[in-house]
Write a structure and sequence with these properties.
single chain; mainly alpha; MetI-like fold; 13 helices; 72% helix
Length: 295
């Protein structure tokens, strides 16, 4: 007996065309235009700084900061380099910022591990205290820090600034990492415990590899934030041999006289190391932020 197969009478829905991500209408170009304009506006102060860094004092006095220089003036760069001993100031800033970045991430990781996974008593209150510490202005802390540093003999030493900023930066890092570890998969921790892993093993073999992108982001932020700090190093470091780049830059300004070209040249030189550091670790920063979003 022959069986006749009849085609289905159900209507066939045509496949929807996949829109190219590069053609999403006018809104995409509007957003791109606004972002580009915002970036250009942010670059305007840097353009003025670059313009005035190579302008002679005479051109600056006669034409102002917006005038085009009549000569390529480089004495301001040489003056800043020699007067403030820039290589020494660069080394001081690199040592302080690098030490704070590494120590701040380590302290943040240990604190957050105890709060987020160890589940110590009063966890929410402790995390709230760390959040409150982030809100305190440095002006409110400067006198107690100055007094304690004088009493313990750490005043005018780089170690005092490293300890202070390690505590300050780790307060933010602890608050951030504790929130992340609070959502860590409990099944993964229980599986590690069943395999006989102790707390330190769980930290270094389970928690640390999963948080490595986030820790890399914190490391970059801590370095840049500490590099740009001014008030606490200004108060704690009074010796020319221990001062950092921002403090050295401020020393170019007097009460009644300011060499604008030299100041702009110094700001330009001081900005280059931070920009290079950011460009070198830009991919690491992007991967860390993307990994944090995916988690």
């Amino acid at each position: 007996m022959a069986v006749t197969l009849t085609p289905s009478t159900a209507p066939v829905t045509p496949a929807r065309p996949v829109r190219d991500r590069h053609h999403r209408g006018v809104s995409r170009w509007v957003v791109l235009t606004l972002v580009t304009l915002g970036a250009l506006v942010m670059l305007v102060p840097f353009a003025f700084m670059l313009l005035n860094a190579f302008k002679s004092p005479g051109d600056y006095s006669s034409g102002g900061p917006l005038s085009w220089p009549t000569e390529f003036y480089t004495k301001g760069l040489r003056t800043y380099w020699t007067e403030v001993n820039f290589p020494l100031k660069f080394w001081n800033s690199a040592v302080i910022a690098g030490s704070v970045a590494v120590l701040g991430v380590a302290v943040s990781l240990l604190n957050a591990y105890a709060l987020g996974i160890g589940r110590v008593r009063g966890r929410l209150w402790i995390v709230g205290l760390f959040l409150l510490a982030n809100m305190l202005p440095q002006e409110a802390l400067i006198y107690p820090l100055y007094y304690v540093a004088k009493q313990v003999g750490l005043y005018n030493t780089q170690l005092s600034v490293i300890i202070i900023f390690t505590v300050i930066q780790s307060a933010f890092g602890t608050y951030l990492l504790a929130s992340v570890m609070g959502t860590f998969p409990r099944s993964l921790l229980e599986a590690a415990a069943l395999d006989g892993a102790g707390k330190w093993t769980v930290l270094w073999r389970v928690v640390f590899p999963n948080l490595r992108p986030t820790l890399a982001v914190l490391l970059i932020f801590f370095f840049i934030w500490t590099w740009n700090e001014f008030l606490i190093p200004l108060v704690m470091l009074i010796d020319n041999q221990t001062q950092t780049i921002p403090v050295a830059l401020a020393s170019l300004q007097g009460d009644r006289l300011m060499d604008a070209p030299t100041t702009n040249a110094g700001a330009l030189i001081s900005l280059v190391p931070a920009i290079l550091f950011f460009l070198i670790f830009q991919r690491t920063l992007a991967r860390g932020i993307t990994a944090g979003a995916e988690k």
